[in-house]
Amino acid sequence: MQEETFYSVRMRASMNGSHEDGGKHISGGERLITFDNMKHTVNALLEKGLSHSRGKPDFMQIQFEEVHEPVKTIHPLAMKTNKVESPEEGQSLARFLLEKAGVSRKVIEKAYKHIPEWRGIRGAVVVDIHSGKRIDQTLEKGVRVSRMDWPDANFENWALRNNMPSNSRTKEALALASKVSDHPAAVAELCWSDDPDYITGYVASHKLGYQRITAMKEYGNEDGCRIFFADGSEDVNSYINYLVKQPIFIDWGEDDDSRVDRKK
C-alpha cells in the first residue's frame, strides 16, 4: 500500500456564493484514493454535493492533489450506540462522556456557552482543556480534517460485524473521529451534524471510543457542532498540522471492537 501514489480529493459546496463570500455551507467530503479511482470518486462527491438536504448549492469546488507524505494506518475507534429519548438527554450524556474522557466540567460548560457563536465556522474549533479557550487561530474557517479514508471492503466487514449500515456517513464520521483521537494532544471530540434530517451525534476519544448518541438536536435544526478538546501543553501547531496534512488509512480487525470502556 505504501508504494502506491495516493491523491487527496476534497469537495465543498455552498449556497448564495462561496464560503469565503459568506455562502451557506451545504456539503463537504474527503477521500484518499489512487488515480485509477479518481473519476468514480469525483462523481460520487459531485452527487453528494448536489443532493444534500441542506439545499441546492450554487458554488462547488472539487480539487485533488498528490500526497507525498507516507500513509499511516490506524485502527478505528470501537463504537457504542447510546439510545436516548430526547436531545436534552443526549446533550446531558455528551457532557458526562466528555468529563469521563478527561475534560473538566468547567471547560465543558465554557465551550457550550460559545457554541452559538461558533455555528458559522466551517471546520472544527480546538479548545484547550486547561483554559477552556479556543486555540486553533483559524477564525471562521475552522480546522478541516483531511487526508483520511477507509478502504471499502474493510469498512463493509466492520459494518457487517457491528450490525451497522455500510453507508458513507458512518464511514466518514468514524474515520474522521479515529484520526482526530490518534494524536498525543487529543483528549475528546464533540460532534453533531448540520444536516436537518440527521440528529445523531457523538463524543469520541481514545479512552472511550466512538460513543454515538441517537439524539443531539431536534429534526429540522441546521445547526451543527464540532469541537476538538486538546491538551494545550502539547504542541498545538503539530496537532493541527497532523489533522490537516497527515494521510491516514483506517484498518479494522475483529480485536479492535473490544478496545472501549463500556462502563458508565
TrEMBL record:
Catalytic activity: heptanedioate + ATP + CoA = 6-carboxyhexanoyl-CoA + AMP + diphosphate
The protein's role, per its UniProt record: Catalyzes the transformation of pimelate into pimeloyl-CoA with concomitant hydrolysis of ATP to AMP.
EC number annotated for this UniProt entry: 6.2.1.14
Superkingdom of origin organism: Bacteria
Cofactors: Mg(2+)
Protein name: 6-carboxyhexanoate--CoA ligase
Family to which the UniProt record says this protein belongs: Belongs to the BioW family.
Keyword Membrane carried by entry: no
Keywords, ordered alphabetically: ATP-binding, Biotin biosynthesis, Ligase, Magnesium, Nucleotide-binding
Pathway membership, UniProt: Metabolic intermediate metabolism; pimeloyl-CoA biosynthesis; pimeloyl-CoA from pimelate: step 1/1
Signal sequence, renumbered to the chain: none
InterPro entries: BioW (IPR005499)
UniProt entry tagged with the keyword Magnesium: yes
Subunit structure: Homodimer.
